[in-house]
Amino acid sequence: MKLLQQGHHARILEHAFRIKGVTGPDSELKHSATAILKSKGVRALFDLLDQYVDVAEPSSESARQILTKKDKRNHSDKSSSNTQWITNCVIDISDIINYLLAGHKTVSGIQRLVIATLSSIPKPARASNVLISMHDYEKDGCRVIPWEFVDSVVRYISSGDDETKFISSVQTTITNSVHLDSASLGIESYTLLIMGAAWIVPGFPTAHRVIARKYKLHVVSILYDLIPYTYPDFVTPDAAREFVFYISSLLAISDGLISISKYVSDDLTNHRVSLGQNLIVYPLNYYAELAREIPFKAFQSSRVGLRSTMREKAIELGIETDNFVLNVGSVEIRKNHIGLFVAWRHLFAQIGGKCPQLVVVGRAGWKAESFFEALKSTNNLDGKLIVLHSIDDSFLSYLYETCKFTVYPSLEEGWGLPIGESLDAGKLCITSNRASMPEVGRELCRYVNPSEPLEIAKEITQLLANPELVKLAEQKIAASKPLKKWTEYQCDLSNLISAIRLERPHPVSKMMAANWFLASGQVVSFYWHLGSDTYDLPEGLSGIKRSLQGSLPSRLIVYTKLDRFESDGAWCKEPKIGLDFYIDIKQIKSRHLSVSLHYSLIFDKVNSLQETEITAKLTINFNDLIEDQPSIMAGKNYFEPTAVHFVTSDLVTFEFANIKFDDCKTNDDHQAMMLESILIPVKLEIEWKPGFNFVCSATGRKLDCLKIKELRVDY
Fold first, then answer.
1. SS3 breakdown of the chain: % helix, strand, coil, rounded to 5?
2. Residue 295 in contact with residue 417, Cβ under 8 Å?
3. Fewer CB atoms inside 10 A, N or C side of the chain?
């Protein structure tokens, strides 16, 4: 972790002591905390203070105060006066809005937790500088969404509200929303909090980069898992490729990532280098465990009187209301429903009609065909296994409350919301002994190998034969309450966002494009769909046929507005591109630098094509090394070659000669000799004469004539 600047130590220590409830720290603690802060950073400091709080003896006055405050934090549902609410944030929920506008009645697990977190913030706290936003593609900015929208979403997914009416209200809300005005709101001290499943919407990585840079925001992102990267077979090929682009871009634009479990945080630590590739500054890596609370309980509590109606509805849906086991989660290969089917078929063969019914709640997802074919061929195991979808949260809560127990033998998770929800309902959960799931269930669940269906069946058989085991488990769950609530989770987010801002006082958004190192000869690809297809590059660019595994340059782009990333490039909305990056002066072998640009030229065949020109400008800032002020890109040296004239060529190379690389010196030449690299910031600006236009068939938008494909820098 990067060492903290000396001037911030006292402020960070004071903030950390306040967060952890340490009052009147003695000199020994201050000394230890300062040493840890200087050497290992804020996260290690928080770990130290957690240990201090845990071992503090209540015999001293200060220790009693610490334990009292800690007890209040663990029971924040009883007294919210000590809760630290999220503040000074712009919270992006564009993916949720787009998802609901598409007509989906139910939301995914990620969207559930986002809405649960937001809805847990009370109305008085919402007014304390917290903005809900969605991206405006046309104006490259944000629309501020009123907080009432969150409450309307809760009502919609928790009940049977009319879908058409709700979608109409969402559209009206968007139409009437105002654009974010950074000048009037003074939001430069704000943080852009990316909470949703943003990788499912093409263009979000670039949109978040533009927004953060435009408004000069810190960026903090919630990381749910790396499953599309670590287990690509669990998702569609396109989803895996787009996720890799998204997460690598997220690493470049974020000041900090907050994982939803220690398991995911460790996963990120193990893979961030391969994901970030040539990133110079990585985001801080924290984690905050999710709540184990069923969302939207305040709304559902008003529907207790409908319990008899719920039972009638369950019977109508074919549920054996007094004899069923519950499984919640989208039906996909990763959730292991085929393993559950095999286990239940074995149970049914063993005990026949005494076999409890398995009720699966979730919509169909990726690679679920074999599961549904098995259901069809066995008549849903003679009714002993049914699948429900598009049910509201009130009815889901009823199912949690009335089932025998729950099962969740997923193959891989970043957390596992249904496990926590089962515990919150007071129900035992049989879940997997791998990934994050033991972290969620702790000692309150029973664990099985999800790859062994007969082991799952054996565990269920044992519980059915010994109902006292279920009762003892439920008593243990009840004794462990209150479990972590959504108000506490958002409090954790608030504290970590504050810590990230303190440790990174200057946001990455100010240097985000230059948070990237280009090695000599490295090819930058302007592709959206990365994959196994091959593409012939011009001989002058690479000389070989290479796989489309290049890096999309959203991390590099300064002001380029790209439209329609395609399999062979991206259209420029303006007749220019601008890139910021670093080069390693120790790799330089001459006073020469060349830039090769590969493009497609589209022109109106009705008009005769006139010769046009393309120019490039290179700015090298020798005085601002990354160790000093990496965010400053004010140029000290400019090199402008003669304009290059072209007509139909698809490759142009700019030659920059007589560059005084020797001007890059440090005060300590010996130290410079010891460094593996000396990085200097570079700005590359390429422009061409406008005039040729291409009308995009998908959007009807008129674009300038170039599709950017590849770029390479040699030095």
1. 45, 20, 35
2. no
3. N
List, in sequence order, every residue forming a beta bridge with 163; answer none if it has no partner: none
**pLDDT grade, residue 148 (50/70/90)?**
confident
Residue 714 has pLDDT above 60, yes or no: yes
First to last CA, the chain: 30
Question: What is 300-482's CATH topology?
Answer: Rossmann fold (3.40.50)
Question: What is the C-alpha to C-alpha distance for residues 492 and 494, in angstroms, rounded to an integer?
Answer: 5
Query: What gap in Å lies between CA 366 and CA 240, rounded to an integer?
Result: 12
373 token code pair: 């074919």
Instruction: Kindly tell me if the per-residue pLDDT of 550 is higher than 50.
Output: no
Q: Are 398 and 314 in contact (CB under 8 A)?
A: yes
**pLDDT digits 0-9 by tens, 426-467:** 999 999 999 999 999 999 999 999 999 999 999 999 999 999
Least confident of 244-258, 357-371, 629-643, 672-686: 629-643
Beta strand pairing call for 569-572 and 706-714:
antiparallel
**What's the rounded Cα separation, in Å, for the pair 465 and 377?**
29
The two tokens of residue 144 are 């501020």
Phi/psi of residue 180, each to 5°? -65, 125
Q: Are 89-291+488-507 and 300-482 in the same CATH fold?
A: yes
Residue 59, pLDDT score:
36
Looking at the DSSP assignment, which residues form a beta bridge with residue 287? 259
Is 90 exceeded by the pLDDT of residue 3?
A: no
Least Cα distance to 48 among 79, 71, 22, 9 occurs for 22
- 330 vs 112: CA distance, rounded Å: 13
Q: Which residues contact 150 (CB under 8 A, 6 or more apart)?
A: 115, 118, 119, 132
More confident residue, 104 or 226: 226
User: What CATH number does domain 512-714 carry, 2.40.128, 2.60.120, 1.10.10, 3.30.1490?
Assistant: 2.60.120
Query: Mean pLDDT of all residues in the chain?
Result: 77
Lowest mean pLDDT among 36-45, 439-448, 472-481, 517-526: 36-45
- How far is 529 from 548, CA to CA, in rounded Å? 8
89-291+488-507: which CATH topology?
Answer: Rossmann fold (3.40.50)
The full set of domain ranges for the chain reads 6-74, 89-291+488-507, 300-482, 512-714
If DSSP codes are grouped into helix, strand and coil, which group holds residue 48?
Answer: helix
Residue listed under structure tokens 């909305």: 573
* Other Cβ atoms closer than 10 A to 45: 27
Between the CA of residue 473 and those of 427, 445, 455, what are the distances in Å?
A: 8, 8, 19
CA distance 424 to 70: 22
Looking up tokens 């929208």 gives 149
Report how far apart, in Å, the C-alpha atoms of 350 and of each of 261, 344, 347, 457, 459 are. Answer: 38, 10, 5, 10, 13
CA neighbours within 13 Å on the CB side: how many for 41? 15
User: What are the C-alpha distances in Å from 708 to residues 525, 529, 553, 601, 657?
Assistant: 9, 14, 11, 9, 25
- Give me the sheet containing 141-145, strands edge to edge: 178-179, 141-145, 130-136, 89-92, 191-194, 218-223, 256-259, 284-287
User: In the block, which residue shows the tokens 């006073």?
Assistant: 591
Residue 332 in tokens: 């996909």
